Automatic annotation (TrEMBL):
UniProt family annotation: Belongs to the transglycosylase Slt family.
Annotated protein name in UniProt: Lytic transglycosylase domain-containing protein
Pfam families referenced in this protein's UniProt entry, alphabetically: SLT (PF01464)
Keyword field: Signal
Organism: Candidatus Caccoplasma merdipullorum
Domain Transglycosylase SLT stretches: 99-193
N-terminal signal peptide: 1-20
High-level lineage: Bacteria, Pseudomonadati, Bacteroidota, Bacteroidia, Bacteroidales
BP GO annotations: peptidoglycan metabolic process
GO molecular function annotations of the record: peptidoglycan lytic transglycosylase activity
GO cellular component: membrane
Amino acid sequence: MRYKKIIVLILFVAAASVQNAVSQYDTRSMVSAFSATPEIPATYEWAGETVVLDRFDIRERFDRELTGFCFNHTNTLLVIKRANRYFPILKPILDEMGVPEDFLYLAVIESYLNPRAVSPAKAAGMWQIMPSTGKSLGLEVSDYVDERYHIIKATRAACKYLKSAYKRYGSWITAAASYNAGQGRISTELDKQVQEHAFDLWLNDETSRYIFRLMAMKAVMKDPLKYGFVIRKNQLYPQIRFDEVEVTEEIPDLSVFANEHGISYSQLKEFNSWLRDRKLPVKEGNSYILLIPRVGDLYYSSNEQPVYYDKWTID
């Protein structure tokens, strides 16, 4: 009888602990330390378009991606930290080019905001641009210079593509789908399946998931704590300021150039990853801008750059 009383007491304490955890979960976070499916809203807005999450396939695809990002902790945490460094660079370009802010999340899902990302298909850079596409959008792609890795120029190129797709389809969401599948494929399927929107197409799994990945990533990054991500200000990757150096003549040795400007070759490449060789030839009449990081900003102890979006952190 004594053991039965002890067991009952243990079960009572355990039940109380679970109830307390559930109570905290209800008020603090949609996804806490235990596994819980995040709630799906009735509608969600992306790039000015309202998506009704009622039809089974639309709702379940969004649910799949939102659940995935909630529990893919490493990459989701990493991309929120990186966004503090890169969104302040990308957002003004999107504004200038007339592309909705929500396309920031396209760069997120394409590369996890890694400027050096390369896919098995040889798409490169933060926006994952193919070599032929890059050239068609005005980027230089050569043995010495590959501007697909140039954050500013590649962002402009991606915006150029997206604006042409929007002009063709009249929908930013369908334009986003074409960024993954290509305008030719999307246009062909719209015609063959007699539909007007990418949501209503039967496509391969990657493209079918693509637009829902964009929506889900936006949801998580707009309110990380709601989905269980706890980040402090000093854990975000700080913004880094640069001095610009215009180069009009060949640089025979980039290591020497870097040392002359007070940084290492590694640091030069880190922020100018579009440099693809140890030297930089410059054709007559041409020029390049190299970014030289301010040394004080390279150290967390002396970098006091602001937090880009307050809801990313809890302090």
